[in-house]
Design a protein that fits this description.
Helix content: 25-40%
Distance between the termini: 22 Å
Shape: globular
Strand order of the largest sheet: 1-9-8-5-4-2-3
Bound molecules: pyridoxal-5'-phosphate
Number of helices: 10
Strand content: 5-15%
Structural class: alpha/beta
Order of helices and strands: HHEHEHEEHEEEEEHHEEEHHEH
Length: 366
């Protein structure tokens, strides 16, 4: 039987290097709460991501919730987002006592269709939460223009966009806030982790720092009702080790994507991801759009028989997270969700592994 190829594989730093990193924790016994590694990683990431302010969090999801909470929206307010994302985006809005309003995506890069946003704005709308899905940057200029015209906040779900540079700027510098995920399955990880970033120049990360620590203020007073969303020292140490390798990890992913592209670009029954030429991509995912839903499902099943595990990412749409589902017209999101498959992609993926996946697709297509 062939070796399993899973959709992703976590990067691991050198074992001895990580052990050396965590050894001092046995002496200091300072395991969390703004420890040495936490502070160092915040500094290193701020530089790497080219952002002014950054606050580490226990995971990306809590980063999204904290970003929303920091803006003090009135309960029941509306946030415009897309349903073509991981359910975390939608759940963060709902769990914050806000109402997600779904906007369709563009068929070419799967990001929010900015031309439809204004039609969804009501007197209850307070924010837009777009997603740089698969690392494809949203139309940040158009979104900023709409937001400033209507007095809305913009919080980017940048979970897929680690380290990307778009039009010469760190992608996390756009909008009022951006949130990254450092989950084990992402391009860069701290086992579990995330970060909220901002370039809006108003010290907003100070709010996040307080909210992630129960809402306690710097002088120990009780402020807003915060939670516990701090990153611990073991996770931060993992992050420091992984950050040293992330450039070469991204290059390795890029080589696998190039190999996939070489093998699949001639096939007219599927479409590959379109990369903006103003983006330095991170090759986070390998989405492939098939002609039909049945073709997608057939390939998905066929690959499984070959021990290859692709993912229907994102299916179903997150509209289902809203129990009181209002009717939405989301033709592009529905179509993408029914036809997309993300293929295995990870740092260190070999040409032979890419070939096996592509052979499987070609055989499956028949
Ligand atoms: C992974 C992910 C999240 C959540 O991040 P966690 O670190 O797993 O909590 C949010 N949004 C998107 C689009 C994601 O892919």
């Amino acid at each position: 039987m062939d070796e399993k190829i899973l959709v992703t594989r976590s990067t691991m730093p050198d074992f001895d290097e990580y052990v050396e990193m965590i050894r001092p924790l046995w002496e200091s016994r300072w395991l969390t709460n703004s420890g040495t590694y936490h502070c160092r990683l915040e500094k290193e990431l701020k530089e790497y991501l080219m952002v002014d302010e950054l606050s580490l969090t226990v995971n990306g999801h809590m980063g999204l919730e904290l970003a929303l909470q920091s803006m003090n929206f009135e309960a029941g307010s509306e946030v415009i987002t897309t349903p073509f994302t991981f359910v975390s985006t939608t759940n963060a809005i709902i769990r914050s006592g806000l109402k997600p309003v779904f906007c369709d995506i563009k068929p070419d890069d799967y990001t929010i269709d900015e031309s439809l946003i204004e039609g969804l704005i009501t007197d209850k709308t307070v924010a837009i939460m777009p997603v740089h899905v698969y690392g494809n940057p949203c139309n940040v200029e158009a979104i900023e223009e709409i937001a400033s015209e209507h007095g809305l906040k913009v919080i980017y779900d940048a979970a897929h966009a680690f380290g990307e540079i778009y039009k010469g700027r760190g992608i996390g510098s756009y909008g009022d806030m951006s949130v990254f995920s450092f989950h084990a399955t992402k391009v860069y990880h701290t086992i579990e982790g995330g970060a909220v970033c901002t370039n809006s120049g108003n010290g907003m990360c100070g709010r996040i720092n307080s909210l992630k620590n129960f809402g306690l203020t710097k002088d120990g007073q009780i402020g807003d009702a915060g939670c516990n969303a701090k990153m611990n020292e073991f996770a931060a140490a993992m992050g420091i080790c992984n950050l040293k390798n992330v450039k070469s990890d991204i290059e390795s992913r890029g080589r696998a994507v190039a190999k996939y592209t070489q093998r699949l670009s001639g096939c007219d029954r599927l479409r590959l991801n379109k990369y903006s030429n103003e983006l330095e991509p991170n090759y986070a995912y390998m989405p492939v759009l098939f002609e039909t839903n049945s073709m997608r499902d057939k390939i998905f099943e066929y690959l499984k028989t070959k021990e290859i595990y692709a993912r229907k990412y994102f299916y179903p749409l997150t509209v289902d997270a809203v129990k009181s589902a209002t009717c939405y017209e989301l033709p592009n999101a529905v179509s993408a969700s029914e036809r997309i498959l993300t293929l295995p992609l990870f740092s260190g993926m070999t040409d032979e592994q890419v070939d096996r996946v592509c052979d499987g697709i070609m055989e499956g297509l028949g």
